[in-house]
Amino acid sequence: MAINTVQTRDRSVVERYMAGMQAGPGGLEDLVGLFEEDAVYVEPFGGQPQVHSGKAAIRDFFQNALEQHLRGARLTLDRLDMDGERLRSEWTCEVPAFNAPMHGFDVLTLHDGRITRLETTVTEFPPMRG
Q1: Deepest of 25, 76, 115, 123, by most Cβ within 10 A of its Cβ?
Q2: Structure pTM?
Q3: Does the domain at residues 3-124 carry the CATH identifier 3.10.450.50?
């Protein structure tokens, strides 16, 4: 596969991931479908990094997040850097529950266009609305 074709495919994975997050509960299947069966997702939303191993655990996390915390979320891809099968995407997330946008980045490892590891880091976590 040509380099430009791979980069286009890998960028598409990031864009589809963000679209699935914005779609709310209706985007769950598309979102989880981007992950390999034995993928790992590391997220910071419980106060300390939490590791979700395997597609079933990742599905459970996102099902709860999409139903409870990400309703009405709008995500913007601010920057995407690609180095082989490893990508770093910087993003802005606007959620109605927060007073200001949340900022962060994801580091994704892909294999043949599927996520094998995703690690989310929040660099700016705004206060919730009172």
Answers
A1: 115
A2: 0.89
A3: yes
